[in-house]
From TrEMBL:
Coiled coil region boundaries: none
Organism: Agromyces atrinae
A Pfam short name: A_deaminase
Keywords: Hydrolase, Metal-binding, Nucleotide metabolism, Zinc
Organism phylogeny: Bacteria, Bacillati, Actinomycetota, Actinomycetes, Micrococcales
Domain of life: Bacteria
A GO molecular-function annotation: adenosine deaminase activity
Protein family membership: Belongs to the metallo-dependent hydrolases superfamily. Adenosine and AMP deaminases family.
Protein name as it appears in the record: adenosine deaminase
Biological processes per GO annotation: adenosine catabolic process; hypoxanthine salvage; inosine biosynthetic process; nucleotide metabolic process
Amino acid sequence: MNTTANEYLLEGGRTSITELPKVSLHDHLDGGLRPQTIIELADEAGIDVPAEESAELAQWFSDHANSGSLVDYLKTFDATIAVMQTREGLTRVAREFVEDLAADGVVHGEVRWAPEQHLTRGLSLDETVEAVQQGIDEGIDAARHNGHHLSIGQLVTAMRHADRGLEIAELAVRHRDRGVIGFDIAGAEAGFPASRHRTAFDYLATQLFPVTVHAGEADGIESIRSALFDGRALRLGHGVRIAEDITIERQDDENVYVTLGPTAQWVRDREIPLELSPSSNLQTGAIAAWGDELIDHPFDLLYQLGFRVTVNTDNRLMSATTLSRELSILADAFGYGLEQLEDFQLNAAAASFLPLEEREELVERISAGFADA
């Protein structure tokens, strides 16, 4: 089922969240496939899939992603990556990815993916990036034909447990004028700090190339520190466990009194954006220290304390979600209205890796869209 077709409403059903202009910063290409596409591509390649009907396959992904462990959660990607090993497969997946973002009201998206995972059928690293960009361009054209204008940038990602960081960084820089706007490292976080890729991050710094780093999801404050100081991260992928560096001293009916540790203070004071993904954070156990329901997520605490919070899907297929749905469940959990949802989008627009002038245009478009809601 294509979840982007769902309409999410706010404030007594008067406002369509789906139609509001939104910015998606943390959205994995291999976590956003349509189930039917997986089935068709697998059939063409002679690959077995866990289910033969799209609804059943969608349910399989959702069930297996709800593991409470990032390592187990990541195993579901074997099924999606397997069908993304040809130029045609990558292009189709990227095109549909953009079409689904457009259907969800996204006006700017940054899609991250790891080219090193798509080489088993003979493609080179550069060919994979070119194939994905072709699909992105086709998706943008299709959206424009349907009256929706959006921008999409690639975040080329290195796998943190592998040893190709510098090679992937150089790949990203080679394509900086052909669709790639940033770099990331992803994969199993615990035991694989950003410092393992220090050479890649040093190179990216010399090239003045933007970096976001997965950190504070399956590991804690030291991982975040490594992302900031070894990786020179301009954003934190998830970053939810920054809340471990916040001590609640006391609280009453109206106020919570806290002390920020040095890392939390640094992240807040320098407005380093947090790419929070509520549903995914529940599925992977990233918020296990606080509870196992959405109301336990430290999202609202971080927002109220002035952290630069953004809302993201992470993997739309695995979490059976959309950006509109993530905003809807946050609104239900914490009583947010249009003002707060606009704050999150303005935060994301300011945090994007677009040039300043384009970020300013994005902010104006978001403000206008919310004013009309």
